[in-house]
Design brief:
alpha/beta, Arc Repressor Mutant, subunit A, D-Maltodextrin-Binding Protein, domain 2, two-stranded antiparallel ribbon, 11 strands, rod-shaped
């Protein structure tokens, strides 16, 4: 049985108005067209739904039974359409973003606050994770997008350039290089280097430079806060991108940019699934990230 919403609305209008002319006017159609809708509905149901007299229209027992379901179906349909309209208008929705920890802590909070001011009804989620887990979340659909570097395997993903994040040396204030305006990477030979783990985008970006590969790794840790503590204690130096420098606001730590035309950098991207549509809310968030790319620290 193929029911249209037009037939259901005609039935409910007639059940409530009890008059063909009034019900047709309510449905903004002519009386002959309205009568054809009711007849087609009764033919499909295989039962008379209304008793007609010259003075009044009444529901039959089958009509009263159908009326309950028709009202419920129309309410459900109206609810579904309203929900879609709310999502399109960004009054509702969900946006899940996967981001490298440095971005999640430094750049994204302000963007989240701006987005919620525009669309307070949208639910936001933020997954701060290392590079490969970020990309995996986008592939699985548990995140709409990622703000991250490119991974080894970008199959099924599209990447739009966000910014170039240049590296700086962080060392203790009493380190021989602490007073310099800039340092060359080769000047770090012999220094004890504190590195992040191989799964981090920072480590992967550094590993592409042959000079860095010849430096001495003293300690390898997983968190920037740990790097801060180790550098402040004078146990070594580290190379970190500009977007992480808020982590190194410490009275005992100096920050020096790297010199030279071949400055080390980490390329960052807005990443989403290829050929997959974003929801209205996610599209609005993605566009806000594009608008705000100029506010990325060090960009």
């Amino acid at each position: 049985m193929n029911l249209s919403s037009r037939q259901l609305r005609a039935f409910v209008a007639l059940a409530q108005e009890r008059h063909f002319t009034k019900a047709a006017e309510r449905c903004h159609t002519t009386q002959p067209a309205f009568s054809a809708l009711i007849k087609a509905l009764e033919d499909a149901a295989g039962a008379r739904l209304f008793d007609r007299t010259t003075r009044r229209v009444e529901l039959t027992p089958e009509g009263r039974l159908f009326n309950e379901s028709a009202l419920r179906l129309l309410n459900d349909l109206d609810g579904v359409m309203q929900d879609i309209h709310d999502h399109v208008a960004k009054r509702k929705g969900r946006v899940a973003v996967a981001a490298l920890p440095s971005l999640a802590a430094g750049w994204l909070p302000g963007i989240y606050a701006q987005f919620l001011e525009r669309y307070p009804g949208v639910e936001l989620q933020l997954h701060d994770a290392l590079l490969e887990p970020c990309l995996d979340m986008v592939r699985r659909g548990s995140a709409d997008m990622a703000v991250a570097a490119k991974g080894r395997d970008m199959a099924g993903l599209s990447a739009e350039p966000l910014c170039e994040d240049y590296f700086h040396l962080v060392c203790r204030n009493d380190h021989p290089l602490a007073g310099r305006a800039a340092v060359h990477l080769r000047e770090l030979k012999g220094s004890s280097i504190i590195q992040l783990g191989k799964g981090s985008s920072i480590r992967q970006s550094l590993s592409r430079n042959t000079v860095f590969g010849g430096l001495n790794t003293f300690l390898e840790v997983d968190h920037l806060a740990t790097v801060t503590g180790l550098v402040a204690a004078g146990l070594g130096v580290s190379l970190v991108p500009s977007m992480t420098l808020f982590q190194f606001r410490h009275p005992d730590i100096a920050v020096i940019p790297l010199a030279g035309k071949s400055r080390l950098k980490r390329s960052l991207y807005l990443i989403r699934r290829s050929e997959k549509s974003l929801s209205s809310a996610a599209r609005a968030f993605y566009e806000l990230l594009q608008e705000r790319r100029g506010s990325v620290p060090g960009a």
